[in-house]
């Protein structure tokens, strides 16, 4: 593994895998709803869409045709605090794929006519989320938990915010956030390191080496509930409790806790609410970590008549895990889930590219594989028990519910 810095300040992290015949290259940017101003809702995601609509030397059709001609894949995604543009191709065509990737990042035109068409596409995407309550309820949970903090905003924005986006707003946002200090390139697979660095140096020279905007850091969770009445077949319940930021070592015990509490078929939520009582089809927990904050989330989908009972059973599981000892066998299963998930993720060039790029961009450092495994191995029952009072603090529990009847939370 290596980390190099281009002359304009963009960091490049790479890992070579000689046993594979492909490579995945990602260009990461600190761009997401966390960085958006109040009038810019959804701009990060909209920019991601527009990057594929034509550059100074390729229109949208040429981008698609050229990638297909080399059997490659090009795509992107926007998250709460980062956007990633990436290509995956066989090693023979790494140069061509990288040229296309850098072209869209550096030279996209943001044509006004294309913008108006793409607004319609994004508004349809927003409509799809609104028609999918199991997705919408997670956006509502972010609004409930983070409230006035920027992470509360949906990645897609709203119909009103997307409609109001102008080309001037986009160019201003790019000028503030698509700068060298806020960008990382990650490449994993089979490629020539020196040649790749030369290619990136030339292809990304258009990115200015300016300072990035600072982030708002102050946040403290407070109890909050959001309910949306909707005539749905299921009631969708999301709960949030305090979690930890990415760099906090307590994140590892929290992942183990999530696995044993609601992370798999042997977990407490699944066994006690789904299998033994048959009250839900889906129930799970998860740990969500960002640069400066985090949450522990729980989701359950159930019928209207038993929804209140499901809430009460989840609360019972909170009390049981706090008041009774964690069983050694369930702990070992949860820890093995965590370790296996990490190790299996190393086998994919795409997964490894994601892990390296995101870590360097948001944490500004990389833990080696051995260091990460050592952190996982260091998790024990005592370290999980020690975080229970902080995590299962129901006095500041937040909720989001979509269904026919408002629940008592």
Q: Can you describe what's shown?
A:
- The chain has 409 residues and is an alpha+beta fold.
- It has two domains: 2-203, Cytochrome Bc1 Complex, Chain A, domain 1, CATH 3.30.830; 224-403, Cytochrome Bc1 Complex, Chain A, domain 1 (2-Layer Sandwich).
- It contains 15 helices and eleven strands.
- The chain has helices spanning 43-50, 60-69, 94-107, 112-130, 133-146, 159-163, 167-177, 193-203, 251-262, 268-275, 307-323, 328-345, 349-363, 369-378, 381-391, and strands at residues 2-5, 11-16, 22-29, 73-78, 83-90, 183-189, 224-229, 235-242, 280-289, 294-302, 398-403.
- The strands form two sheets. It has a six-stranded mixed sheet with strand order 1-2-6-3-5-4, with helices on both faces. A five-stranded mixed sheet has the order 7-11-8-10-9.
- A hairpin with a 4-residue loop joins β4 (73-78) and β5.
- α3 packs parallel to α8 (193-203), α9 (251-262) packs across α12 (328-345) and α9 (251-262) crosses α15.
- It starts with a strand and ends in a 6-residue tail after the last strand.
